[in-house]
Write a structure and sequence with these properties.
This protein has 148 residues and is α+β, with helices and mostly antiparallel strands. It contains three helices and nine strands; from the N terminus they run ββαβαββαββββ.
């Protein structure tokens, strides 16, 4: 088992700055090569503590920005234009990347932070959840319309 320090948020494992213990293969072949984590050392842990202190100072402003982005996203529905057949079925599905591109004008959202309850494979109106911050989540109305 390897003790590592996360440098980015890893779903199901922790957030940046967390010290976690994972299996050697997961650390050596996935987390460290992708720069999601660094091996634990006392020097690395002290630098992480300094980063945490700086981040705490920025956190309040980040929460306020996330709340403002949530209000902007929830104010109007997001329209996604896709190719569809005569019956309203889509050629493929609407991905989180498509939704992130449509949202892009209002707020910068990473496609990995968009949660769709079930695949969107037909025209219509849907609701998706967007995690903007640890405590701030927006429920966004998505209108899927056919391209002309």
């Amino acid at each position: 088992m390897s003790k590592i320090i996360l440098t980015h948020e890893v779903h199901g494992l922790g957030v940046a700055g967390d010290v976690v213990v994972v299996k050697d293969g997961y650390a050596n072949h996935f987390l460290v090569p992708r720069k999601l984590a660094t091996p634990w050392s006392t020097g690395a842990e002290t630098s992480i503590e300094a980063m945490r202190k700086a981040q705490r100072g920025r956190e309040l402003a980040t929460i306020e920005e996330a709340q403002a982005a949530r209000d902007a996203l929830q104010a109007n529905p997001v329209v996604v234009t896709v190719k569809a057949g005569e019956s309203g079925r889509l050629f493929g599905a609407v991905s989180t990347g498509d939704i992130a591109d449509a949202i892009g004008a209002r707020a910068k959202v990473d496609k990995r932070r968009i949660h769709v309850a079930s695949p969107i494979k037909a025209l219509g109106e849907y609701q998706v959840k967007v995690s903007l911050h640890g405590d701030v989540t927006a429920t966004v109305d998505v209108h899927v319309v056919a391209a002309s």
